[in-house]
Design brief:
The chain is of the alpha/beta class. It is built from 18 helices and 19 strands. The structure holds flavin-adenine dinucleotide (FAD). Flavin-adenine dinucleotide (FAD) binds next to helix 2, strand 11, strand 14, strand 18 and helix 18.
């Protein structure tokens, strides 16, 4: 967890219920709602019943909670107390459960769930596994949001969006896991309805603070650049320069060959390239502010070389030595993003907690009974709302066969024991959990800085305004959220995506709290702090104002059309990746993530940080390696 987060974060606050926004009732009468029909547009679909178990009443059913989610108030404070030394000394255990497991996994994200699954596979399902996580829901970043309105549920990804291979191809292991879970990546076109948004384009919102006046221009990348910029509210100088940088075939580094260009561009930011080499007019620069590059780098933190490899404007006249990235030929988006992968794993691990037997399609509408995730006698138990504060061997790590795991749950410290532990949490908390780690390893684990990210999902009464304006997505270079997008029209199993612009729809608004001009890690630390101290009310105000300003010309009326807001805040979002601007060149075996992930006795380390890549496949691959380490610790390999 963050080293920089402020101390007073309202630890005892209840999770806010956001049934009313500005006096407009949303999802009215949830508890008394009639049978809940997912995908109710099709009257032939069976209705999924709202379960009677109080754990599953909609106001406590985690995916259906609105307001602040992701790292919600109440989920992270014990981790920060651990960081701050509250559990550094002798621990007063209040609940010694007496439970002993073959394996305890810390973290119920994709990596932790995969580790539990692979271990159970190795033991043909006869393992005895406990998964602990600090949140009220499983999946880590891969969580889902459910909005209930009328008699329907609208799904969206709360974090991890897609199976995708833009930079790191899926390994054999990752592909095999998806296949085992029944995911047929090649079937994606069957679920997508591309016709629904036909004719809608990407737009850019030009704000009056940085341009001539407010204005949304549709058709970026579709219209000829001359036309696109002619329609934009720009000064003559900015317009001319934006047209030049997008269309001129100029070599801005004429004295260098392709390799020399690549070398220089790796040492400067894209912003430096634009200002110092392209001599972009200062009035044109704000247009580039919202561009997000790999790992959410911005023009001031993205190496110009990376920008050149993404087809960014300014390089079309230059021959630059290229590092080939694999084509993105492996893509899939579930209605709830990669939360479906987490749900499929939990469905394998704890089948009794599900409303019905599920496959990769029918799981979209299946309900989880959260009270059944942690049942005595189940080979795998998932214990939520449990923050691990210590994992240490009983005795010498080189010979010990037992690790005690202490976690905080409901304000009390509890202990379980395990023959092995996989830490599938975040690198930066591991050094506080395992005091016995060598100092060099602790230092290596502290190197990474996760990227703060916020996905604000909003339920809108309809998407007519988007249609009138001709946009499906909007880039707002200087907005509170920098991207606004209608979620992909994907139907799966009994879940039917609304098929008319007059029906409600979810839009995802992306915010990355950056502080341009500062070093990347400093920006990320400040972003994490911003995120944790910003109350929901402030975000709600910003959402209303931004949607009104952006879509108002299309007839959007916030008090009428904004139905609900779920803010998925991920202060510890993307795993850190190295780049040529911010990081030194490391030898292969000296990369901090490689040093940091070494096994200590019976404790091994999974999670995407351990692979220094913020991707689902990395979380899976690291789980696979950690389970292999675990087996090695028992002499089983
Ligand atoms: C907003 C967002 C969008 C993304 N989009 C994509 C995408 O489209 N495609 C893609 O491939 N990847 C995407 N990623 C990256 C991907 O989500 C991650 O790489 C992957 O899900 C990480 O899984 P993980 O299990 O390693 O970590 P996490 O998902 O972070 O899970 C770790 C879990 O451990 C818990 N934990 C931490 N400390 C403790 C403790 N002390 N005790 C108990 N529990 C603890 C955490 O709270 C968390 O629940 C995205 C990430 C984010 C943040």
């Amino acid at each position: 967890m963050s080293d920089e987060a402020p101390k007073d974060l309202g630890m005892k606050r209840r999770i806010p219920r956001r049934d009313f926004l500005g006096g407009v009732a949303v999802a009215a009468g949830l508890a008394a709602a009639p049978p809940l029909a997912l995908g109710g547009a099709d009257p032939g679909q069976p209705a999924a019943q709202v379960p009677a178990d109080p754990e599953l009443l909609p106001d406590t059913y985690p995916p259906a909670l609105t307001g602040l989610r992701g790292q919600y108030p109440g989920s992270f404070e014990e981790a920060h107390r651990t960081r701050d030394g509250a559990y550094a000394g002798a621990l007063g255990i209040e609940d010694d459960t007496g439970e002993v497991y073959d394996l305890v996994v810390v973290g119920a994200g994709l990596s932790g769930l995969t580790a539990a699954h692979l271990f159970q596979r190795y033991l043909n399902g006869h393992g005895n596994v406990l998964v602990l996580d600090n949140h009220d829901d499983f999946g880590g970043h891969a969580k889902r949001n459910e909005f209930r309105h009328g008699h329907r549920v609208y799904l969206a990804a709360g974090g991890t969006l897609d199976i995708d291979t833009p930079y790191f191809p899926y390994s054999y292991t990752a592909r095999a896991l998806l296949a085992e879970l029944g995911i047929d990546v090649g079937s994606y076109p069957r679920h997508l309805n591309p016709q629904l948004y036909a004719g809608l384009t990407e737009g850019v919102f030009f704000d009056r603070e940085h341009f001539v006046r407010d204005g949304l221009v549709a058709g970026r990348g579709r219209k000829p650049w001359r036309q696109f910029f002619a329609e934009a509210p720009l000064t003559a100088a900015a317009r001319a320069d934006l047209l030049r940088v997008h269309t001129a075939t100029v070599d801005y580094l004429p004295g260098l060959d392709a390799a020399g260009k690549a070398a220089l561009l790796k040492r400067i930011s894209y912003e430096q390239f634009l200002v110092q080499h392209v001599h972009l007019h200062r009035e044109a620069l704000p247009y580039f502010a919202g561009l997000a590059f790999r790992n959410n780098k911005r023009i001031d933190t993205c190496p110009a070389y990376e920008a050149s490899q993404h087809g960014s404007p300014g390089f079309q006249g230059m021959s630059i030595e290229s590092e080939k990235f694999p084509d993105p030929d492996y893509f899939f988006h579930f209605p709830d993003g990669n939360a479906t992968i987490a749900r499929l794993l939990v469905n394998r691990l704890v089948p009794g907690a599900w409303s019905e037997p599920c496959d990769a399609e029918s799981i979209a509408v299946a309900l989880v009974d959260y009270a059944k995730l942690d049942r005595p006698g189940s080979p795998t138990r998932i214990r939520l709302r449990s923050t691990v504060v210590r994992a240490e061997h009983e005795g010498d790590p080189r010979s010990s066969r037992s690790v005690q795991v202490v976690y905080s749950r409901g304000g009390r410290l509890a202990r379980v024991r395990a023959r092995n532990v996989v830490l599938a949490c975040h690198n930066n908390i591991i050094r506080y959990l395992v005091p016995e780690l060598p100092q060099a390893q602790k230092t290596a684990l502290a190197y990474a800085s996760k990227v703060p990210m916020q996905y604000t999902n909003v339920l809108l009464r309809n998407w007519r305004p988007w249609q009138r304006l001709g946009v499906q997505s909007i880039v707002a270079p200087n907005g509170y959220h920098t991207e606004l997008e209608l979620v992909p029209p994907v139907s799966m199993g009994a879940y039917r995506f609304p098929d008319s612009p007059d029906e409600p729809v979810v839009a995802r608004l992306t915010r990355n709290p950056n502080h341009p001009g500062l070093p990347r890690k400093t920006q990320q630390a400040l972003g994490r702090q911003d995120m944790l101290v910003t109350p929901f009310e402030k975000i709600e105000q910003e959402v209303r104002a931004q949607l009104q300003r952006t879509l108002g010309a299309g007839g959007f009326d916030a008090p009428r059309d904004l139905l609900a807001i779920t803010v998925n805040r991920w202060p510890h979002g993307y795993a850190y990746t190295y780049d040529t601007l911010a990081d030194p060149a490391f030898a292969d075996n000296e990369y901090p993530h490689v040093v940091g992930r070494q096994r200590l006795g019976r404790i091994s380390i999974a999670n995407a940080d351990a692979g220094a890549a913020a991707f689902t496949n990395e979380a899976i691959d690291q789980a696979h390696r950690a389970v292999h380490d675990l087996l090695a610790s028992r002499g089983w390999t």
